[in-house]
Design goal:
mainly alpha; 82% helix
Length: 106
Amino acid sequence: MSENKTLELAMIRTKLANQRTLLLFVSTGFALAAVSKIYKYKLLGILGVIIIILSAIQYIIVNNISHIKKTFGEKISTFAWYWLPMITVPLSAMVLYLHFYIKKKR
């Protein structure tokens, strides 16, 4: 296998591992928020939000470090493949807001 192909495969593995890490930290943030709601301990909910935000920052940094110059068509598919997991961050923020600050009518 050529050196360029090996480098490209290594970068793909790095980006996939980065996506798994982001999604793991988002699910951990949700778990902390759920535990904080059950035990009425808001500090855990705040920690969950901080974990989600920091994991998003880490995801962006790693994706920018391992950027490869591509054509326009490849950039579109790269955008969809690499940046799509970032949708979980604003969705997580909305769900956590609804979870903590919207009162149920009974």
